[in-house]
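Standup notes, structure subgroup. Blocker cleared on the (5S)-5-amino-3-OXO-hexanoic acid input:
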Amino acid sequence: MSTGTLITVAPTGAESSKSDVPNLPVTLDELVRTAQDCERVGAAMIHVHIRGDDTRPTLDLGRLKETVAALRSSTSLVVQLSTGGAVTDPEEDRLRVLEAMPDSASCTMGSVNFGDDVFMNRWEFVVELHRRMRERGIVPEYEIFDLGHLSSLRRLLDEHDLPAGGHVHVDLVMGVPGGMPGDVSTLVAALRLMPEGSTFSATGIGRTSLPVMLASLSAGGHLRVGMEDTVSYARGERVRDNAQLVARAAGLARIAQRPPMSSEEVRTLLSVAQ
Ligand code: KMH
Ligand code: ZN
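Run returned:
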């Protein structure tokens, strides 16, 4: 097994607005440039949310297809589309994302309070996402916002078989207000519930970014960073761009003697088609 670190960049998300965060990549050009910059400093996978001409989150299928094609032709990154979207997105639109045929897609394993909102993921919907990804050969990344989501993941795998490629990869999204905290003891608790043979990455929202990154590296996990998850680099200092966050993660991974993996290595690790 490789000892390297998978670094995923989540550059945009659905929560920050361009007016609040002017350096957020929202156009296709901005996204492609960000992806190239992040690949150069150590990212191997990109978790993508897109925006419309009005800079607001959209799940428009034509735009998603165009985005997948543009990222494939300009980078070697593993392209993961978000099926989480924004908290207001209907299930049909979230399922339709898979028709853009990314390498990978997120699959959130349950509902969670999400700040003042609720991020809804009914059991039947989760099963349908898993089923359609299997059918299309899209490799899921199971998003875990709370510890109970890991119990649901075990149930999903027991009742509905392994995902496309046969490997299970989990992403712990820690520190969402309403979800699990972003700290070491919670990460250790999550490890105990992880399906056998699975790999995991972790990201900490807001100020939990650094503690979660250090804990994940120490525990043998992989990393997700980006402006979807945090827009401050340090106390009182705004993030300059996504590459700044990826470069820091890559530096810490090297210090941990687990240097960034190439996208080719990550395709092998996650069983994504080369
Ligand atoms: N935007 C959040 C409501 C995902 O990408 O799959 C959900 C989210 C998870 O970001
Ligand atoms: Zn996301």
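Discussed briefly. The pocket of (5S)-5-amino-3-OXO-hexanoic acid (ligand 1) is lined by residues 13-14, 82-84, 86-87, 106, 108, 114, 119, 143 (CB under 6 Å).
Next: hand off to the docking folks.
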